[in-house]
Structures are given as C-alpha cells and as structure tokens.
Amino acid sequence: MADREREQNEVLSKPISTHLNLDSEEFRKKKQTVVDDVAVLEDFTDFSLAKTISKIEDEVNDDATGEQLEDDVMPSTAVEMGAEAQIRFLKAKLRVVQEELNRLSHECNKKDEGNGVLSSKLKEVEEDRVRLQRMTSLQQTQLEKHRALAEDANRNCDSLRQQVTALQKARLMPNSFT
User: Fold this and answer.
1) 89 near 48, Cβ under 8 Å?
2) What Cα–Cα distance (Å) separates residue 124 from each residue in 111, 112, 136, 138, 151?
3) How far apart are CA 110 and CA 106, in angstroms?
4) Per-residue burial over 63-79, b = 16 or more CB atoms within 10 Å of its CB, e = otherwise
5) For the range 27-36, what are the long-range contacts, defined as Cβ-Cβ under 8 Å and sequence gap of 24 or more?
6) Domain spans in the chain, listed from the N-terminal domain onward
7) 50 near 20, Cβ under 8 Å?
8) Cβ neighbours around 20 below 10 Å, total
9) Is residue 15 classed exposed, middle or buried when 0-12, 13-18 and 19+ CB atoms within 10 A define those classes?
10) Which residues form a coiled coil (predicted)?
11) Do the Cβ atoms of 136 and 129 come closer than 8 Å?
C-alpha cells in the first residue's frame, strides 16, 4: 500500500508534460485537418499543445513559489485522515465523477439521437423540396403548352369568326342586289 502511494506521489509530483509524448515523431506526422469554413484566430496559427502545457506549468510553478498549492481533489482535512480514509474518500469522489460522466454521456447520446432524427427529417424535407421543384417545373412547362394551345385556339376562333362574318356578308350581299 505504501509503495502504491509512493508511486502515485511520484507521478503527481512530475509535470504533466513529462507524461505526454507530444514531441514524438508519430505525433508530428499526424496530418492536421482544417475545415474551410472555420475561423481560426491568428494567435493560434502556431499553436502547440506541448508549449501550452509547459506554459501553464511555468505559471503554476511561479504562483507556487514560496507557498504550497492546495490540492483540489483532497480537502484540507485530508492531511488528518488515514490512508484508508483517503482511499474511501477518493473512491466516493470517483463514483460521483463517474455518475456525472455517465449522466453527461447519456445527455450527449440523447442529443446525438435527436440530431440523427433532425438530420433524417431534414433529408426528407430536402427530398420533398426537390420533388416539388420538379413537379413545379413540369407544371410550368404544361402551363406554357396550354397557353400556346389556348393562343392557337383563339387565333383559330378569330379566323373562323372572320370566315363566318365573310360568309354571312357574302350570303347577304347577293340578296341585297336582287
């Protein structure tokens, strides 16, 4: 038990950047992708996680100079607790954090499902829109055809009226001369 605590204290006493392998060749080889429509601030164009972590560690070390940092995991009364009590406390805290993680994960899954439903509805609406556009253009062409036919029918009607009028005049004219 004491060996385990000693190992934990050794790990916790080292800066985080020593545990991260951010400067490895494999990490640098991974191609970064940038989406075209995402705005990137100019300050972040030379962003490096390792630099950021070491910068934060330096700030913490500067703040901690001459004073002991308070542990945000263990309460100030933890110094008076025995090792077993500290372990029980940490286990209880871990359970609470896991429950919170589960709750947030559940909410995230619900939102993902909601997004999936909305995406499928959007797809259906888009398909309906495309179908309606096709139908509208088809109806527009039919309307144009019907207009052309109506104009042609009106011209024929006018022509026939003129013929009827001419025939009536022709029929009345011989009667008027006799």
Assistant:
1) no
2) 20, 18, 18, 21, 40
3) 6
4) eeeeeeeeeeeeeeeee
5) none
6) 1-31+39-67, 85-178
7) yes
8) 13
9) middle
10) 80-107, 143-170
11) no
* Sequence letter at residue 136: T
Instruction: Round to whole Å and give the CA distance between 17 and 37.
Output: 32
What is the C-alpha to C-alpha distance for residues 174 and 169, in angstroms, rounded to an integer? 9
* pLDDT per residue of the chain (178 residues) written in tens, 0 to 9: 566 666 666 666 666 656 555 555 555 555 444 444 545 555 555 567 777 788 888 877 776 554 454 446 677 777 778 888 888 888 999 999 999 999 999 999 999 999 999 999 999 999 999 999 999 999 999 999 999 999 999 999 999 999 999 999 888 876 555 5
* Phi, psi of 13, rounded to the nearest 5 degrees: -80, -20
- Specify whether the CB–CB gap between 68 and 62 falls below 8 A: no
